[in-house]
Design a protein that fits this description.
The complex is a heterodimer of chains A (489) and B (595). With 489 residues, chain A is an alpha/beta fold. Chain A has 15 helices and 21 strands. In chain A, the strands form four sheets. In chain A, strands 9, 11, 14, 15, 16, 17, 18, 19, 20 and 21 form a ten-stranded mixed sheet that branches. In chain A, strands 1-7-4-5-6-3-2 form a seven-stranded antiparallel sheet, with no helix packed on it. Chain B is of the alpha+beta class. Chain B has four domains: 67 residues, Elongation Factor Tu (Ef-tu), domain 3 (Beta Barrel), CATH 2.40.30.20; 78 residues, RNA polymerase II/Efflux pump adaptor protein, barrel-sandwich hybrid domain (OB fold (Dihydrolipoamide Acetyltransferase, E2P), Beta Barrel); 236 residues, Rossmann fold, CATH 3.40.50.300; 138 residues, Bovine Mitochondrial F1-atpase, Atp Synthase Beta Chain, Chain D, domain 3 (Bovine Mitochondrial F1-ATPase, ATP Synthase Beta Chain, Chain D, domain3, Orthogonal Bundle), CATH 1.10.1140.10. In chain B, the strands form five sheets. In chain B, strands 8, 18, 19, 20, 21, 22, 23, 24, 25 and 26 form a ten-stranded mixed sheet that branches. A six-stranded antiparallel sheet of chain B has the order 1-2-5-4-3-6, with no helix packed on it. The chains are: A alpha/beta (489), B alpha+beta (595).
Chain lengths: 489, 595
């Protein structure tokens, strides 16, 4: 009867959704891995979700289709889900959602077996992330700077170009330069074949394929498997970052599919749901994934996470983006309106945020005026959006001259600052100068967030450098007309 | 935690479901008793008893536990160790010392037995302040230990012990484990007194009597102190969706609040945030004493990836520590970030117990638990005759920024001050994003006298004048949104621009600017006086003398108004008086030119 370290049981008591119930089990631990052997002798993996004296409930990752109550065998392996990792065996490889090779190579066998659930990081041991990563994308670098060890999700919607955008971040991040050891861990959960192909091709073209580890659970793969995929990916990432001292960028796409798998299991188990049928522990469960980003004191490597999720119906208050935003250190929000205007990347900077920005930028890290300029651009853009709303009611004609300047700012800001090519890589200085150039559309008296010295040093330069035809058309008008709408909110 | 030696191994696990386990043969357990599980000694607490079965919530990861493992009762409810060695340190939700754990077992948190909360080897210099033979009451001070450079730790006898002091050690170095005194109680029983005592975290520490709060917890944050003040011993809630600045506000308060002790509870929040605080606080000087802030701060960190049941306990561990320092006669401010995560931990445990849910899956006792927590705030006369206070500031994280959800609603019932954070303000990077229309404070009257003394003027009147303009402006904004600002008559334009001045130059405050981050009370008063003077003169000039608003908006003094918050610290009020003078001059000039 004994197989490996565990026991084997024949027959299932109950099968429900992705769960099987086994009676009369002994010496089985909570969270232990089980092998479910079908009539045909095929093995499926599962995990113990709940265990009592007589009954074990197991979630079967590859689904329960075809399992019979009488002839199915269940083996308990006496250990949690573990994965063996060594740098030589994983870099440049492709695996399925449960970590089995898809590229014809051997499974990783060297290295220590690691529990894929990881362990919580002692907050005392964390090193505060402060190293600016230049992504070459203005809307991120200037307005929502990414730092090494941050977890910064992309909130997207169906059909928005999050894949292109994420690929561009990977391609351009100076994380990948400077002779430092780096790696990319890519975990797909219920992702379309097309999207995965796109990422693969992009890694290939940028020559980083040898540095990528891919774990693929595709849209037509078993859904419960998705609960495992990100955890294996992060186990690999932790090994590379904290033992091999590499800077690791982890892409998790799409977290919405992950959460749906979690809901499926919770519903089958008959748990009391909280919002929209998701289990009450969705926050804790997501945290157990997202919190595995960061840096550790005295260890050279880092894990930077970019999870991607599609907001159902573009609704940012949906539990998945909502709880994600409460755990991650900010969010980059893609906007359908901007996308329809033809702006790429369609980042709506107003709801976007990077919480670690203020400590990662400034004189020693980027430039002294970065924080204030960013804040000023936010204030202008927010005001411009209010003017746009007003204009949609009373018409542009009836706006004050000052308000028209805001409209112009908003338009130019979207076209020249947020908008950029998928292969356009701007340095942080180019980005900041461009920001000044646009800010100078508005009269300097409206600059409430920057210092006069900064305007003198950077602003006037931008104004001089600017294309002459790109100046302020309202300048010719009498002073008071220009100023009539000042101090307006 | 100190644990009892193994003796009774009858009770065994019969079922495991996440952080909740069922135990058989558990007749000897009592409600809320602490238990340890298996050889690894995982820590748990009894939360339900049914026949000879008990339900236990486990404060650590239960992966790998098996039915049949033994569970031992500890004969004690979940307690905190209270003594020197707390201030400046960081603990998890059950008061495990995180720094010691890092030292002993590396960067990741392992389950099972760890070091005890208070370092048993460190010797403290104890100075007795009482003679043996004296009659002594529970809570009375018997001596002092200098815990940090600014905190004198008053060593007290446990609150429920009365009797006669039999002996007390001479001045000298002692560890927390050593006996420093002995007391004979009324029954003739002798009790050993050490530098530390244990106290069950779910039980409020007793005091002589409660008194009404009458002093503000001054924070240097203008929108809070001036408009929505919190009193020492009061309660406040900061609700706000993600990204609205709850955590920054909590950090600002823990940096600048004029409390003697700050207890900061990171409850189910981000690990990197705690790392940031731990990096900042040892270097930041306290505005009052100039000593590093860490010397008055205690951290309880149960980040979101740590065990969920310990998150539930972290709130109680924190408030118990706060009460202990209150009993020494200190003013303590407790920040809980975030109470929503604590409520979710309650919900998760309740769900695993298959309890009947009330709103949104939360258990029906959510409101009761919130009330019990917030009611532990207050100003008290301690058993030692001192006045001490605990103020509670709880962050709330409403899902989808929807304030009608149960945690926000129930919290509102038990707090007196409400600082509502606004998503739209935060989007425009307008910080602190406190919405001045939805926020309120129940302590305006209580602190009015304090302000009166500080400012030498009618603070309530000044505050009301400013609030009236802001409220009138909010009404006008609805019109402006529809027809544009130009359509407003002149007197309303004055309100509109006046409100703008208050918002930009007074309410908005940068946490990152070295000067603006903290505003002394005198500076707050003079700043608002200047702005209100400007509005008054503008009103007069526009309405009575028909001078157009844009003429006033060209006055160069406006730039000075815009920069005064970041330019002058406020220890010297002279620059502000000069601004006021120039303001009057410029209006006078304008008046001459135009008429």
């Amino acid at each position: 009867m004994t197989v490996g370290s565990g026991l084997q049981y024949i027959g299932l008591f109950r099968v429900q959704g992705p769960l099987v119930f086994v009676k009369g089990v002994k010496d089985v631990g909570f969270g232990e891995i089980a092998e479910v052997v079908t009539l045909e002798g095929k093995t499926r993996l599962g995990r113990v979700l709940s265990i009592s004296d007589e009954l074990a409930i197991i979630e079967v990752f590859e689904g329960t289709v075809g399992l019979s109550a009488i002839n199915t065998k269940v083996r308990f392996l006496g250990r949690p889900f573990e994965y063996r990792v060594s740098a030589e065996e994983v870099l440049g490889r492709v695996f399925d959602g449960l970590g089995r090779p898809l590229d014809g190579g051997p499974p990783p066998i060297a290295g220590k077996a690691r529990n894929i659930n990881g362990m919580p990081v002692n907050p005392v041991a964390r090193a505060y992330p402060q190293d600016f990563i230049q992504t070459g994308i203005s809307a991120i670098d200037a307005m929502n700077s990414l730092v090494r060890g941050q977890k910064l999700p992309i909130f997207s919607g169906s059909g928005l170009p999050h894949a292109h955008f994420a690929a561009q971040i990977v391609r351009q991040s100076s994380l990948l330069e400077a002779g430092k050891k780096f790696a990319i861990v890519f975990a797909a959960m219920g992702t379309k074949h097309e999207e995965v192909q796109f990422f693969r091709k992009d890694f290939e073209e940028s020559g980083s394929l040898k540095k990528v580890v891919m774990f693929l659970n595709l849209a037509d793969d078993p859904s419960i498997e998705r609960l495992i995929t990100p955890r294996i990916a992060l186990t690999v990432a932790e090994y590379l970052a904290f033992e091999e001292n590499m800077h690791v960028l982890v892409i998790l796409t799409d977290m919405t599919n992950y959460c749906e798998a979690l809901r499926e299991v919770a519903a089958s188990k008959g748990e009391i749901p909280s919002r929209k049928g998701y289990p009450g522990y969705l926050y804790s469960d997501l945290a157990s994934i997202y919190e595995r980003a960061g840096r550790i004191t005295n260890i050279g490597g880092s894990i930077t996470q970019i999870p991607i999720l599609t907001m159902p119906d573009d609704d940012i208050t949906h539990p998945i983006p909502d709880l994600t935003g409460y755990i991650t250190e900010g969010q980059i929000v893609l906007d359908r309106g901007l996308f329809q205007k033809g702006i790429y990347p369609p980042i709506n900077v107003l709801p976007s945020l990077s919480r670690l920005m203020s400590d990662g930028i400034g004189a020693d890290r980027t430039r002294e005026d970065h924080q204030n300029l960013s804040s000023q651009l936010y204030a202008f853009y927010a005001q411009a959006k209010r003017v746009e709303r007003l204009a949609s009611i009373i018409g542009e004609e009836d706006l004050t001259a000052r308000d028209r300047l805001f409209l112009k700012f908003s338009n130019e800001f979207e076209r020249k600052f947020i908008n950029q090519g998928a292969y356009e890589n701007r340095t942080i200085f180019e980005t900041l100068d461009r920001g000044w150039e646009l800010a100078m559309i508005l009269p300097t008296r409206d600059f409430t967030r920057v210092q006069p010295e900064e305007i003198k040093k950077y602003g006037s330069k931008a104004a001089v450098d600017a294309d002459p035809g790109y100046g302020d058309p309202e300048n010719g008008k009498p002073e008071h007309e220009n100023e009539a709408g000042k101090w307006k909110d | 935690m100190e644990r009892k030696e193994a003796k009774d191994r009858n009770a065994i696990i019969s079922e495991i479901n996440g952080p909740v386990i069922k135990v058989r043969h558990a007749r000897s357990f009592s409600m809320n008793e602490m238990v340890v599980i298996g050889e690894e000694e995982l820590l748990g607490e009894v939360i339900e008893i049914f026949g000879d079965q008990a339900t236990v919530q486990v404060y650590e990861d239960t992966t790998g536990l098996k039915p049949g493992l033994f569970v031992q009762g500890q004969g004690l409810p979940l307690f905190a160790e209270l003594g020197p060695g707390i201030v400046g340190h960081i603990f998890d939700g059950t008061q495990k010392p995180l720094s010691a754990m890092y030292r002993d077992s590396g960067p990741f948190i392992r389950v099972g037995k760890t070091a005890v909360a208070l370092d048993r080897d460190k010797a403290w210099y104890f100075k007795p302040q009482i003679l043996s033979g004296t009659k002594i009451m529970g809570g009375q001070m018997i001596g002092v230990v200098q815990e940090t450079d600014r905190i004198a730790h008053r060593v007290m006898i446990p609150p429920n012990l009365n009797g006669r002091l039999m002996e007390i050690v001479p001045e000298g170095l002692y560890t927390v484990a050593e006996k420093i005194a002995a007391i004979e109680d009324e029954k003739g029983e002798v009790h050993e007194i050490k530098l530390y005592q244990k106290w069950p975290v779910r039980q409020i520490r007793p005091y002589q009597k409660r008194i009404l709060p009458d002093k503000p917890l001054f924070t240097g944050q203008r929108v809070i102190d001036f408009f929505f003040p919190l009193a020492k011993g009061g309660t406040a809630a900061i609700p706000g969706g993600f990204g609205t600045g709850k955590t920054i506000t909590q950090h600002q308060l823990s940096k600048w609040a004029d409390a003697n002790i700050i207890v900061y509870i990171g409850c189910g929040e981000r690990g990197n945030e705690m790392a940031g605080v731990l990096l900042d606080f040892p270097n930041l000087p306290d505005p009052i004493t100039g000593r590093p802030l860490i010397e008055r701060t205690i951290f309880i960190a149960n980040t979101s990836d740590m065990a969920v049941a310990a998150r539930e306990a972290s709130i109680y561990t924190g408030i118990t520590i706060a009460e202990y320092y209150r009993d020494m006669g200190y003013h303590v401010a407790l920040m809980a970030d975030s109470t929503s995560r604590w409520a979710e931990a309650l919900r998760e445990i309740a769900g695993r117990l298959e309890e009947m849910p009330a709103e949104e899956g939360f258990p029906a006792y959510l409101a009761t638990r919130l009330a019990q927590f917030y009611e532990r705030a207050g100003v008290v006369i301690t058993h030692g005759g001192e006045t001490g206070s605990v103020s509670i500031i709880g962050a709330v994280s409403p899902p989808g920024s929807d304030f009608s959800e149960p945690v926000t609603q129930h919290t509102k019932r038990y707090v007196s001050t409400f600082w509502a954070l606004d998503k739209e303000l935060a989007g425009a990077r307008y910080f602190p994003a406190v919405n001045y229309l939805n926020s309120y404070s129940g302590y305006v009257e209580a602190v009015a006298q304090w302000w009166q003394r500080k400012a030498g003027l009618d603070w309530v009147k000044l505050r009301n004048q400013a609030l009236t303009i802001l409220k009138e402006d909010a009404r006008l904004m609805n019109i402006v949104k529809l027809i544009g600002e130009d359509a407003l008559p002149d007197d309303q334009k004055v309100v509109f621009h006046g409100a703008q001045l208050i918002k930009e130059n007074f309410l908005q405050q940068s946490a990152f600017d070295p000067i603006d981050t903290y505003s002394a009370a005198e500076k707050q008063v003079v700043m608002l006086q200047i702005i209100m003077k400007f509005i008054e003169r503008m009103q007069d000039t526009v309405v009575a003398h028909r001078i157009p608003v844009y003429r006033i908006m060209e006055l160069p003094i406006l730039e000075e108004l815009g920069r005064m918050k970041v330019r002058y610290k406020g220890d010297d009020l002279e620059p502000f008086k000069k601004i006021l003078n120039r303001l009057e001059e410029q209006f006078d000039d304008l008046f001459k030119r135009e008429t």
